[in-house]
Amino acid sequence: MYALTKRFISNLLVMRRFLFCKIFLLSLGLVAAPKESEPSDDAMIIEDENEPGKETQKNASFFEKLNDSLVFRSDASLQSGYQLIDASEKPIRFLGSLWATAGLEASEALSLQLSAIARIPVDFSWNASPGQSVDGSNAFLNLYDSFVKIRSSQASLSMGYLLIPWVNTRGSAVLDRLNPVDYRRGQDFTSTLLGRIPQVGAYYQTSVFETNIDAVILFHYSPSQGSLVASEQSGVQIGRYQGALWRNHEQSKNFAASRGDLWTKQAWLQTPVLALRAKRQLTDTVDMGVMVSSGFNEAPSLELPKAIFHQRLLDLGMDLNMNLGAVVLKAELLIEPMFSTWGGKTTVLVSKTEQQPSSVQLPSLTLVVAADAEYGDWFSGSLELIDTVWMNVPQNEFVLGVESLQANHSQERTLHRLALATATQSEFLNQKILLRVKGEVGLTQPDILARIDASYHWDSLGLYAGGYSNLFFGIPGSPGWFRQNATSFGLYVGHKI
């Protein structure tokens, strides 16, 4: 009796520990298993079925496994910087950020993940009181990549608030089209996922005849909030243009600058996103993938000054990789075809006589050729040549934020945005110093859009500190010129768990 009582009390203590951890994470809104986690291979213990208290011992083992499978990760940081904008727009800028995720492996067939992200921007000026951004880029707390994942030996199904990063090239990632770009102010280089808006949906993965098949349904397209002013948007978006309508607040003063104030919401049944991808290893060194999706344009269609909305489009994509040993050659092709009056890429236009932009649907394609390399633990990166093409651009109009103001607009034409892009990461002093570079250089219309980031990491403490510089400039009309007021530099500190 004494032994049974002692074992029962021991089991209660284990269960209390597990429930305390779970309740704590639930109170934060965070429970789940990280995507990278795989079920652990526990040793099999042979037990005597007639042993007294055996059922209680099994339960203790179960709760101990759940307790051990609970994983929590977080990244909290504070960034301060100065931006090259007018004093009235509060160029001294602080940003507090928190990303957190927690995971639970309930069994070999079931895992959970729950994530959240929060940001608090506070701006200052020597002639204005501190406060939120002047255009409504306010603090927010959002549920992030959160889902239930069911696995079998042949397939997996994820359901929840999803991020689907179909990324092949490091920088341009032109086939990453399912989740909208996050245009709210925030930090670069946290991760690829943190630059997208998650959507409610289901993601099914399986393999048929040695071909990997991915199928996605996102039930409701919900685009990014944030600003329509280029100087208020976050980060460097390689190969992605026309996320903003105005260079600065002076140009937008007669319009609402916040996306949320203008965006026309649509019913759930009108906005599902459907996508299918197949990928296969052709030889020992070559693999190829194809994808098709019915989603929505990143650039907004305009009904100014009252509203903006996002048009549906068809994306057709293909990627090809060839492993040469030290270097992997990669190619991506994205086609956005036009069918009579449906489909095509939403393109924002401005004439030299009109200050208010307009929008039109045009057939478009993007081609990327890249060389990707990794050398030990100290370097990884890619060099990419990107050609973005807009066809049938109408006469007497130029493509906003892309085309040189000095170009010939007198006739209908095909516009090429040819750029050289890179995304690299270098590590020094036993991975204590981290140097990251990301950006693109325009070739046909010279400009630069780049971020350089250097940091030092104290792994034993989970601390890091560093500095950054965002650089945007170029000839009038180019993407670098359009985002010139977003040029900034600053410092940051942070802590990871």
Q: Secondary-structure map with pairings?
A:
Blueprint: H1 2-28, H2 54-69, E1 71-83, E2 92-105, E3 110-125, E4 128-131, E5 140-143, E6 146-151, E7 155-162, E8 199-208, E9 211-218, H3 249-252, H4 259-262, E10 273-281, E11 286-296, E12 301-303, E13 307-309, E14 312-323, E15 327-336, E16 338-339, E17 342-343, E18 345-350, E19 358-362, E20 364-375, E21 379-393, E22 398-399, E23 413-428, E24 433-442, E25 447-458, E26 463-474, H5 479-482, E27 488-496
Helix pairs in contact: 1-2
Can you describe this structure in just a few lines?
The chain is mainly beta and 497 residues long. The chain is 11% helix and 47% strand.
Radius of gyration: 25 Å
Question: What's the assembly state of these chains?
Answer: single chain
**Low-confidence segments:** 1-9, 11-58
Please state the second-level CATH architecture. Answer: Beta Barrel
How many angstroms separate the termini?
A: 44 Å
Query: Residue-averaged pLDDT, rounded?
Result: 83
Q: Shape from CA axes?
A: globular
User: Care to count the β-strands?
Assistant: 27
- CATH topological fold name: Porin
Helical content (DSSP H or I, runs of 4+): 10-25%
Quick one: CATH class? Mainly Beta
Characterize the largest beta sheet: strand count, sense, and whether it forms a barrel. 18 strands, antiparallel, barrel
Given the helix and strand composition, which structural class is it? Answer: mainly beta
How many distinct domains?
1
- Number of continuous helical runs: 5
Strand content: over 45%
